Amino acid sequence: MEELKEIFRIIDTMMIGCDIDYKELKTKLIDAKFFDDHQNVRIVNSFLFNYSKIQDKIGAKLLKKVLYVQKEIDNENISMKDALNLLEKLEIIKDSHAWDRLREIRNNLSHEYPYCIEERIENISLAMEGYKILTEIYSNLKKYCEI
Counting Cβ atoms within 10 Å, is residue 29 exposed (0-12), middle (13-18) or buried (19+)? Predict the structure, then answer.
């Protein structure tokens, strides 16, 4: 249980910065001129970096660990698909395909070209949408574990 609490602490810390950047981005008009301001680029880069790290940490460390600690599974060697289906059954994730959507967004971010402004704008929008889903899943995991 202590290992699980530590994972939650790490993600909580990462989410502080991501929340700040997310809220800042919500106040901005993100268009081609947006990228002329270095401060805007810094906020986007910070948000996307933290978003990706949080998603990685939740996917790689937290999902199966929660199921194991809460005695829903006997070991953490189940497939991600089975873990997602169980999380959906437990109503932690609304739809197991939501995680697939988050992975899609993550892949788009890792393959974008910075000079293609329209693609960047679209990916920022997708990441912001994905962050709402990610924070909901994370909140549900914390509630389920009573942390």
Answer: exposed
Secondary structure element (H or E) that encloses residue 48, with its range: helix 38-57
Supply 39's token pair. Answer: 């401060």
Provide the residue range defining the domain that includes 81.
Answer: 2-145
Other beta carbons less than 10 A from residue 59's beta carbon: 18
Q: Cβ contacts of residue 19 below 8 Å, gap of 6+?
A: none
Taking only the tens place, the pLDDT of each residue in 86-119 is 999 999 998 888 898 898 898 888 876 667 889 8
pTM: 0.90
The structure tokens 């602490």 sit at: 9
User: Number of structural domains, the chain?
Assistant: 1
Tell me if 35 sits within 8 A of 120, measured CB to CB: yes
Tokens 């788009």 belong to 108
